Amino acid sequence: MPRRPGPPSRAASESRAAPNDLVMLGEFGRAQGLRGEIRLKSFTSDPLAIISYGPLRAADGRTFVLTEAKPAPGSSPDLLVVRVQGVSDRTGAETLTRVALYCERDKLGAPEDEDEFFAADLVGLEAVDAEGATIGTVVAVPNYGGGDLLEIRSAKGGATALLPFTKAFVPVLDVPNRRVVVDPPADFFAPAGPKPADEPG
């Protein structure tokens, strides 16, 4: 779970907004192979721990039991290959693509530190600048090994951009009022420039 902005060495999970009293723990991806395995993006601090939470719920009320989980080969640590109770072929796995998995918030307990938050508490926050103008919305809280990041989608649409989740870039975090004050670089949402042409040999 992320901490309030400060030193960059913080453990994190990632998530997005959950309905009611639920916290999103993962999301199914594409089918893997022919025997019912499916990729899963885990949002728990220990990705493999998602299997220990028991039956998980979808937003439409369906429940799923993960019976096996292993890291997906050649991928980031939060990507797994899982088996789901009752799913035994590729067709069944394909029906689960993009289904988000939730558990009841009370099963997770409370953060141990007052400066810690569930990632689900951060996703969906309105990102504003120092003057209060809306910049975008937090859509994920990834960590690729170099510290927590806020993935922000511009209020004007288009691709998302990543902002380090530190005090310098995120001076104010106001979870109760669903907003975060950010200080991004001027070119934060600028598209990547063209790749330089190879110099003649």
How many individual β-strands? 13
- Termini separation comes to 50 Å
Helix content: under 10%
> Approximately what portion of the residues adopt beta-strand conformation?
25-35%
Q: Kindly report the spatial arrangement of strands forming the biggest sheet.
A: 11-10-9-8-13-12
Largest sheet: 6 strands, mixed
* Poorly predicted spans: 3-18
Order of helices and strands: EEEEEEHEHEEEEEE
Q: Whole-number average pLDDT?
A: 81
Gyration radius from CA atoms, angstroms: 19 Å
Shape type: globular
> What structural category arises from helix and sheet content?
mainly beta
Number of helices: 2
Q: What are the SSEs and their pairings?
A:
Blueprint (H helix, E strand, L loop, with lengths): L21 E11 L4 E6 L13 E2 L5 E2 L1 E6 L7 E6 L5 H5 L5 E5 L14 H4 L3 E3 L5 E7 L8 E6 L5 E5 L7 E3 L4 E3 L20
Parallel strand pairs: 8-13
Antiparallel strand pairs: 1-2, 1-7, 2-6, 3-4, 5-6, 8-9, 9-10, 10-11, 12-13
Short structural summary:
By secondary structure, this protein is mainly β. Helix content is 4%, strand content 32%.
Question: Would you write up a description of this structure?
Answer:
The strands form 3 sheets. A 6-stranded mixed β-sheet has the order 11-10-9-8-13-12. It has a 5-stranded antiparallel β-sheet with strand order 5-6-2-1-7. A two-stranded antiparallel sheet has the order 3-4. The chain is 4% helix and 32% strand. The protein has 201 residues and is mainly β.
